[in-house]
TrEMBL record, chains A, B:
The keyword Transferase applies. InterPro entries: aa-tRNA-synth_II/BPL/LPL, HisRS-like_core, HisRS/HisZ, HisZ. Pfam families: tRNA-synt_His. The gene is hisZ. This is ATP phosphoribosyltransferase regulatory subunit. Its main location: cytoplasm. It comes from Neokomagataea tanensis. This function is generally fulfilled by the C-terminal part of HisG, which is missing in some bacteria such as this one. Gene3D superfamilies: Bira Bifunctional Protein, Domain 2 (3.30.930.10).
Amino acid sequence: MSSFDDTPAHDMRGDALLPSGFADLLPGEAEAEARGIACVMEAFSRHGYQRVRPPMLEFENALLNGAGSALQNQTFRLMDPNSHRMMALRPDMTTQIARIAQIRLQDAPRPLRLSYSGSCIVVGTPGRETDRQVSQAGIELIGPDSAIADAEVVALGAQALDELGIEDVSFDLSMPALALGIIDKAIPAKDRAALLHALDRKDAGAVAELGGSIADVLLTLLRAAGPADRALEILRGLDLSDAVRPHFERLVEAISALRARRPGIRLTVDPVEFRGWQYHTGLCVTVFAAGSREELGRGGRYLAGKEPACGLTLRPQALLRAAPLPPSRPRCYVPLDISAEALSGLHSQGFATVSALTQDASVAEEAQHLSCTHFWRDGATHAL
Amino acid sequence: MSSFDDTPAHDMRGDALLPSGFADLLPGEAEAEARGIACVMEAFSRHGYQRVRPPMLEFENALLNGAGSALQNQTFRLMDPNSHRMMALRPDMTTQIARIAQIRLQDAPRPLRLSYSGSCIVVGTPGRETDRQVSQAGIELIGPDSAIADAEVVALGAQALDELGIEDVSFDLSMPALALGIIDKAIPAKDRAALLHALDRKDAGAVAELGGSIADVLLTLLRAAGPADRALEILRGLDLSDAVRPHFERLVEAISALRARRPGIRLTVDPVEFRGWQYHTGLCVTVFAAGSREELGRGGRYLAGKEPACGLTLRPQALLRAAPLPPSRPRCYVPLDISAEALSGLHSQGFATVSALTQDASVAEEAQHLSCTHFWRDGATHAL
């Protein structure tokens, strides 16, 4: 949805142009988005995740606390004229769900399963045309710290995407603590940033140069990125210290638990993926549709206050681009004097009805004019 | 939902308190709100209203244009660092829908039927504890200017409330142009504000004093407020000028069209109701649940640019307080190794399933701990 290139000049045109990154969804698109979110939230609800709905904005210090601090630069602030305190529009909902779990629901039994959907607003990067109003629909599993919990969250994401009809989804797993543990032990703090940057860029030459005594290990990690079985095979060949071996074992365990729940799931592993996982403490996952490299969602393990938690956030805007459009409802044009019974009969057959607004409307013509698929005459539907 | 009086002191407590007028919806409440909005939007869709979804914020001059200017003082502004222009959080969605109809959908056939739902943010009044994040779900019928169009919008609102299970709903109709037309002709401009204020307060003494030559007519209008039939009877007795008589006739016609569509509808008429109808040009309606005097919604006729339009906005937060809580889904605790078939069987019976996260979980105890209604053992559900 770009600007209004396809509409003629109009005296409101300049005023009506939206800020970049904000868009109108028109009929069809808006319905598809709403149905997509409803489908995902229904999958979450069926698996015992209970919906919460935090507000669009909070006091700045609450919203950008802890895990939220990573999003400081992406957050719009505004002054509350009532309390004279700074508020912030949420750039993400995970921090809010963690707050609800820690405070409002601190006495609710664990494991606590919560779901949510809503819009977030991010500042964006000038000159980069990306969405600045971002829909989210997600789950958080709070309390347990286990591979089975990790697997439940990822498997439920896969289930939801399946129900949306998105095919060939791929889940890219990473375990940032594994590579970071190796690096922290061997590389002086002052040299780490350059090395991490090289790993981020998958720049083998720079990694060889900056990797010192662990260059070979890191190059092996780089080479391991790819399909899960091959990656685990390569990682298994490494001589890991007792400090980092548990991260590898947890990864193996999570993959095995995930396969037990969803035998066909397509998994890749990237052992040197750190970007965007600032507050994560365990398994991380990025979801892709095989056709595009657009992220459909992401999630991972973190601490909600002091509690272990694991979550996954899907991005309905990306889902909308990846999912087949749901069939639109057939539309039947009906005369003004149609009986209530006939009307509700049409509704229960799945029709949307579009009513005449005058007694003497020419039914077939008006039906055509209004892009209806059917019209009602003499007690029956007629297809156009 | 007040503050956290029922939770013990906590080191995040001060930070986590939300700004007044903003609230978390917890499990149960959030689900009920989402289901209520879905139910209302489904009723709108079945009657041919197509969903659009404008963004949460726009450039200030677009959002506060025309009809939106009435909401200037209720609007939060924020600077867009990318375009260096002021943006505003929407305090209402009607202006946005009118913009979409005028520009994005200017070539779509009329009558154009649009629906929408989303959150709006208002500044509020310091010291007054009202919602500042306001959910809206509404419809706009754009193009026709007729009593039948007025009636369709109100009748569909009644239908949606019916499907939500809200009983004893009352629709309070007004036609501001009727009384304003009488006043404008007889009262000098400088004296009108005081008179309108007296009418607003329903202060018969002040109206008698300030009403000059039309004091009797205005007192009759005041007295007419009440059930629709009685009100029309009283209004019919007035000697209305040719300039204002059409407003009365339109009111009569709209009521009759509305009764034809929904025979049992409960209607009242208030001929001296002007408040909150700054940009309305015809029939206006306020929706109340008989039990409380809380507004469930409001709407009316206005101009979307130069096009006649008529809309109705329901307030899901008020609906939630008026509607019976939907029955919550039964929850069945299931062992980790339950088969995919058994799981989907439970889902198609309407159960939410809550999975064990360890192999050896004590099923009945855990089910109880997690507030489940059932657990699964030996291939069958057992009620708790």
